Amino acid sequence: MTFFLKGYRVDTDKIAQMFDMPRSRALDYKPMIVRNINRGSYKYIGTGYEPDGHINMMIVMDDGYNAAELMRTPMPPSEDGVLLSIARHICTPCVWPDYDQIFDYKTFWYAWKESGGCKVGEINTTSDDSNSTEQKKT
């Protein structure tokens, strides 16, 4: 059974675009960016698995074995302004399979696609926290 991570992918392309730098250089900024987030604002830092076999750094807000349920439920709230700013500008929210749990990604992604999978922007990123500025993605 596959374990899934729900949270924010620290998006290399968005970092490169925001700071007008080559993508290869933007990779070096990911650890520095994550270190600036209050540790109590997220569950842990994980690695999600992309359909093309690439690994992504994730700020994990929730996890579990039921991907559909993770996509349906709101993103856990955070009052950390740094996390909210990073999530809004240089991250991509979604649910990804946990890299540490995947061994045969081609078989997995075929099954993921057949089940409807997660398309970026289709998860519920709203929270019940009235201080949150995140909006529901459609």
Secondary-structure blueprint:
Blueprint: E1 4-10, H1 12-18, H2 23-26, H3 30-35, E2 44-49, E3 55-64, H4 67-72, H5 81-90, E4 91-97, H6 105-114
Antiparallel strand pairs: 1-3, 1-4, 2-3
Provide the descriptors you would attach to this structure in a database record.
disordered C terminus; 4-stranded antiparallel sheet; globular; single chain; 31% helix; 138 residues; 6 helices; alpha+beta
Q: In words, what does this structure look like?
A:
This protein has 138 residues and is α+β, with helices and mostly antiparallel strands. The protein has one domain. It contains six helices and four strands; from the N terminus they run βαααββααβα. Strands 2-3-1-4 form a four-stranded antiparallel beta sheet. A hairpin with a 5-residue loop joins β2 and β3. The protein is globular.
Write a short abstract of this structure.
The protein is α+β, with helices and mostly antiparallel strands and 138 residues long.
Order of helices and strands: EHHHEEHHEH
Largest sheet, spatial ordering of strands: 2-3-1-4
Helix content: 25-40%
- Largest sheet, strands/sense/barrel: 4 strands, antiparallel
Mean pLDDT: 79
- Strand fraction: 15-25%
Please tell me what the overall shape is. Answer: globular
Structural class: alpha+beta
How many domains make up the 3D coordinates?
Answer: 1
Counting DSSP E segments of at least 2 residues, the number of strands comes to: 4
The radius of gyration over CA amounts to 15 Å
- Low-confidence spans: 127-138
End-to-end Cα distance = 28 Å
Number of helices: 6
